[in-house]
Amino acid sequence: MTVVQEQERLQAALHNEEPVRESLVLGNPSVRDVTARIASIVESKITLKYLATLAVTGGMAAWGLFALYYTITTGIGVWGLNNPVGWGWDITNFVFWIGIGHAGTLISAILFLFRQKWRTAINRSAEAMTIFAVICALTMVLCHTGRPWLFYWLLPFPNQMQMWINFRSPLAWDVFAVNTYFTVSALFWFVGLIPDLATLRNYVKSDLAKKIYGVLSMGWTGSTRHWHTYEIAYMILAGISTPLVLSVHSVVSFDFTVGIMPGWHTTIFPPYFVAGAIFSGFAMVMTLLIITREVLDLKQFITLKHFENMNKIMLATGMMVGYAYAMEMFIAWYSGSDWERWIFINRAMGDYAWAYWTMVTCNVVSPQVFWFKAARRNIPLMFVISIFINIGMWFERFTIIATTLHHDFLPASWGYYSPTWVEISIFIGTFGIFLSLFLLFAKFVPVIAIAEIKSILPGAQPKHHHDTHHVDAAAH
Amino acid sequence: MSTIPVGVVGEFIEVNAAVSAAVKLRDAGFRNWDIHTPYPVHGLDKAMGVKRSMISYFSFVGLLGGLSTAVGLQLWTGAIDYKLNIGGKGLFDWQFSIPIDFELSILGTALLTVAGLFHLCRLPTWYNRYQDDESFKKATDDTFVVTIDSDDDRFSAEGTQEMLRKLGAANVHLVHATAE
Predict the structure, then answer these.
(1) Residue A427, in any domain of the structure
(2) Cα separation of B158 and B133, whole Å?
(3) Measured between CB atoms, does B87 come within 8 Å of chain A?
(4) Domain annotation covers residue A190
């Protein structure tokens, strides 16, 4: 059965509500087919369309870098930040990008620990997205310091002032958390790549490509003695990445919670932020993968089943975020604190009400369609919803930051914040960096984890072995 | 060109056959041999008699290293080197140190796990005596490739090839070192 025939058969069966076993890999490819299909993307010629797209994203990145240069040489005054709103688009974007990164780690590590075989089609791209998203987040956080050439002051090093960093501050915790997250994500991604780079080394024709993949694959031969250690190492990395992803966004949320500001000083932030991060991250993965599978013709690997599972996760995390919104409101009232009560009424009805209601509509209302199976399997619909979710999640961070800061305890300090063209340009620039890096990744690195997909194909694993949890790719 | 063979190579395309062959090769007492697979095959390491890896020890040492670095850093800077009185709070309290302790423990674990992986697998090793053999290269595609080195006690050029053929391997042949 070809891929298209299988897709049609599945569609018909679901329409008639027949029970059907849905393969995770369509078209029943052989192991060699899998190698050829995915490795051939790397071998294919660079098209004009690809270069044109890269030029557009590169242009966005260049524009953003120019705006960054202007900021650094002139000063933060070119931004819209002022008293009382000292954090605006800069920190919103930082939290936005870190949040997007978390989906990659969740797919790689947490779904691995839960033995969800469907992750194998999407984990490579998702992990790559994590790394690129953290690069964007680091760009935002470094440029917001005002004197980014003094970035090393964030690190504890002996200096002539004999000063150390304030280890009690979440801003210092962030330094360690985000850098650890970047390092561990990059290591996990690279370790996962080694066997696939070896496959490419043996597959590609050009000598230069062979040499490059040969060096990067470290001489991996597929030796079972090596796979044995490799599998344990991978499990350990997955095991530590899980608490890492939970802790990093919790530490980021501490940037807000340890302050006494109404709307910020609340214990719900860590789980709320982590759930929101997973929510927005999955949305970004979905947006990119819908395009990628179309352009690179990977529909037999990234199937409707995968998207359906992702939509279920987005629905779940969206509900958690919606619950957090409701709880914040309730606790604000229940607390009896006039300031807490007022700040939440202000969010819904004050100067930034437009941002607040965008957030609620996009995050709470729009994912509700995913209760319906037809919606979960509708590609154009989920593409649109994933973009709404990202817009909504951006507005969530913006709402949290701007509403609390623009109206704090002292009415004489109140002031409305708007971004300048410089801040908007830097944000566009980070999208340019993110998308450019993703395009480069899609061309030169296997977009799907070749070895992992092979290992879940029906018939790939021996029968009668002791692993009782083993379920092959023919089942859900 | 060297006349001493590097070893014997055989191909399996069916995973159950490869696992049965592994059990028999292990029981026959071979030590310097391996099966190269395009993906990790469950139970094959056990079938080969591969001992449990030492990598977890690396990870644990990394964890302790990261943790002690974090605690040591915060303790020494705050309570020994520059005792700064901030609002009468303790110079070092384990509670405020938790986030950095946690992050550096994870970083240490990750770094030493990867270092351990590279060390135990002898990576990077950019030269392999079998690397020019066509069968060997199929191991990253779709074939399970058995290699039995000539320096194994039980190796014999003809005998080992015969044994592999009996076990069901295809394309069994001797591999010689690459001419320079």
Answers:
(1) yes
(2) 18
(3) no
(4) yes
Least confident of A307-311, A385-389, A460-464: A460-464
pLDDT in tens, A299-316: 999 999 999 999 999 999
Please check the confidence at residue A468 and state whether its pLDDT lies above 70: no
Contact yes or no for A226/B121 (Cβ under 8 A): yes
Whole-number Cα distances in Å, A439 to A125, A187, A281, A390: 11, 20, 18, 20
- Quick check: B130 contacting A, CB < 8 Å? yes
Contact A131, A185 (CB under 8 A): yes
Range of the domain at A193: 48-452
**Within a domain: A389:** yes
Question: Do the chains contact at A229 and B120, CB–CB below 8 Å?
Answer: yes
Whole-angstrom Cα distance, residue A100 to residue A121?
A: 19
Structural domain count, chain A: 1
Residue A373 and residue A14: Cα distance in Å, rounded?
A: 9
> In whole numbers, what is the pLDDT of chain B averaged over residues?
93
Domain CATH number, residue A196: 1.20.1630.10
Put simply, whether the predicted model's pTM sits higher than 0.90 gets the answer: yes
Count of CB atoms within 10 A of residue B30's CB?
21
Among A122, A98, A409, A446, smallest CA distance to A277 is for A98
Residue type, B113: T
CA angle A205, A209, A215 (to 5 degrees): 125
Concatenating the DSSP letter of every residue in A223-243 gives BHHHHHHHHHHHHHHHHHHHH
Could you tell me if residue A4 is inside a domain?
no
CA-CA-CA-CA torsion sign (B66, B72, B73, B74): positive
| Residue in B with minimal Cα distance to A196 | B140
**How big is chain B, counted in residues?**
180
Question: pLDDT-derived band of residue A361, with 50, 70 and 90 as boundaries?
Answer: very high
Rounded to a whole number of angstroms, the distance from the CA of B51 to the nearest CA of chain A is 9
Give B50's contacts in chain A (Cβ within 8 Å). 224-225, 228
Average pLDDT over residues A449-471: 78
